[in-house]
Write a structure and sequence with these properties.
This protein is α/β, with parallel strands linked by helices. It has eight helices and six strands, in the order βααβαβαααβααββ. The chain has a six-stranded mixed sheet with strand order 3-2-4-1-5-6. Helix 2 packs across helix 3.
């Protein structure tokens, strides 16, 4: 078997994405653009990659990721029954901040918002998770799951950045600087993450 390659997708655009609201474990439906992004990302994958058997698909169970995964697999003509849903790939929980914009959070929760700005890695939103918490559960996923010649992962913006950081061995401040695109995907191989559009 060839060395495992991870193809990492973010879910398509959601209604809350367009409004700048923190989603976390709450869900917001994909927009029509978000659905189109998922289809186009699958087509981009077909043009730039080959499905080396065996293929394993992992997804966050949150609705926006689940819907994106189904669109991608339908486009690739792969059964959606093959998706393995794993809670460890869920987005970071933003706790009481979920559903709010950054300006609303800063107004309603000034102390925790300021603490997060000072120490983004370790500070938890009220009833939520820190980057360190997400890093712990995504590391557990990465170290325990079976990776195949072709491993497709559909998750979320922050989760994707954390996973790329783990894969490439990045420092915390480098994880913060990674992008969270809805368009295209990342090919993780040989300890690098190539952005493909």
């Amino acid at each position: 078997m060839s060395a495992p390659t991870i193809y990492l997708f973010r879910h398509g655009e959601t209604e809350w994405n367009t409004e700048g609201r923190r989603q976390g474990h709450k869900n917001s439906p994909l927009t029509s653009l978000g659905k189109l992004q998922a289809k186009n990302n699958a087509r981009c994958f077909q043009q730039n990659s080959s499905l080396v058997e065996p293929v394993i698909i992992y997804s966050s169970p949150l609705g926006r990721a689940k819907d994106t995964a189904k669109i991608i697999l339908n486009e690739l003509d792969i059964s959606t029954n093959s998706i393995i849903f794993d809670n460890r790939l869920m987005e970071s929980s933003f706790g009481k901040w979920e559903g709010l914009t950054d300006s609303e959070i800063a107004e309603r929760y000034p102390d925790s918002w300021q603490a997060r700005l000072v120490d983004r890695w370790n500070t938890r939103p009220p009833s939520g998770e820190s980057y360190a918490d997400v890093n712990s559960r995504v590391s557990e996923w990465y170290n325990q799951v079976e990776l195949s010649s072709t491993t497709i992962v559909i998750c979320h913006g922050l989760t994707s950045r954390v996973l790329r950081g783990i894969y490439m061995g990045l420092a915390h401040h480098e994880v913060f600087n990674l992008t969270e695109p809805h368009v295209g995907f990342f090919k993780l191989s040989d300890k690098t993450a190539a952005y493909i559009t």
